[in-house]
Amino acid sequence: MKETCQDLLAEYNALHALAASLSPAQWRQPSAFHDWSAWDEIAHLCYFDQTALQSATDPEAFLRDAQALNTLMAAGGHISAVAREVYGHLDGPALLAYWQPVYARLVQTLAALDPKARLPWYGPPMSARSFATARLMETWAHGQDVWDTAGRARAPTARLKHIAHIGATTYGWTFANRGEPVPGPAPYVELTAPDGGQWTWNEPQPDNFVRGSAEDFCLLVTQRRHLDDTRLRYSPGPAQRWLAQAQCFAGPPATGPAAGTRVLRTAPAE
Fold first, then answer.
1. Which of 144, 47, 53, 140 shows the shortest CA–CA distance to 95?
2. Judging by DSSP bridges, how do beta strands 209-213 and 188-192 pair with one another?
3. Residues whose CB is less than 8 angstroms from the CB of residue 244 and which lie 6 or more positions away in sequence, other chains included
4. pLDDT-above-70 percentage for the chain
5. Could you give the CA distance from residue 154 to residue 134 in angstroms, rounded to a whole number?
6. What CA–CA distance (Å, rounded) separates 137 from 234?
7. How many angstroms separate the CA atoms of 207 and 46, rounded?
8. Are 31 and 149 in contact (CB under 8 A)?
9. How many CB atoms lie within 10 A of CB 249?
10. pLDDT confidence of 266, banded at 50, 70, 90?
11. CA distance 179 to 41
């Protein structure tokens, strides 16, 4: 649990460092992710880091507040508007200063828990270990939007293994979440790690597989890239159907980006 939380803290700190380098114009520039700005991305993470901390420290209060948020969303509300209402009085640097102690306390709190401890969330309860890796995945995914909009390439790290694991193990859920039958066994997933090693999931199958870089796979399952914008190799049939709609994050079915729409910009926005 402590090692997982060390990776989580490193992911937070990497995004914090990037955001701290943004100009006022870059804080406001819309990204390719639903036109969210860097401010929206950090505000979103901050909001859910605060609710995550509440889940870990006061689960009864969390459940009350979560019900209110779920009701708002069911009525057509937008989560970006919720974060803007809470933090709208803060500019980018002030929001960043507010967020840092929130995520630091969350990591410290999670690190002290039993990995199997159950924590309530907006869907089913999660183990503390899964909770921490989900926060890492969320931070990395929204961080990608900021990196893309700033026109800077992010170096992949071994922390991608947490996200790749979520992606590989949500094969069945991707279909079930859409009310579709799961088409047979999960494909064999073989990914090249940033250090050149191999990460694998499921049994080898010559006619049912996904291969490629761990970074491309993580970009796909978090819906930060279209399949055509990656170099993943895959078999026709179930694997291709999965990758066309893969979704490793919770919530209702989401439609991923069109080809060529969520990519690294060629120059930073000043």
1. 47
2. parallel
3. 227
4. 98
5. 20
6. 23
7. 43
8. yes
9. 15
10. low
11. 30
Residues 6+ apart with CB under 8 A from 137: 162, 163, 166, 222, 248, 249
pLDDT score, position 178: 95
Give the tens place of pLDDT for each residue, 99-150. Answer: 999 999 999 999 999 999 999 998 889 999 999 999 999 999 999 999 999 9
Rounded Cα distance, 262 and 85, in Å: 27
Q: What are the C-alpha distances in Å from 165 to residues 73, 91, 191, 249, 251?
A: 29, 35, 11, 12, 18
The pLDDT of 19-39, averaged and rounded, is 96
Give the total residue count for the chain.
270
Q: Residue 254 pLDDT more than 60?
A: yes
- Residue 219's nearest CA partner among 154, 270, 175 is 154
Task: Supply the mean pLDDT for the chain.
Answer: 94
Q: How far is 3 from 137, CA to CA, in rounded Å?
A: 15
pLDDT band, very low/low/confident/very high, at 265 (cuts 50, 70, 90): low
Distance CA 67, CA 73 (A): 10
Q: Which two tokens stand for residue 155?
A: 């170096």
Read off the pLDDT of each residue in 250-254 and give the average, rounded to a whole number.
Answer: 89
> Is 169 exposed, middle or buried (CB count within 10 Å of its CB: 0-12, 13-18, 19+)?
middle
DSSP symbol at 34: T
Q: Residue 71 burial (CB < 10 Å; 0-12/13-18/19+)? A: exposed
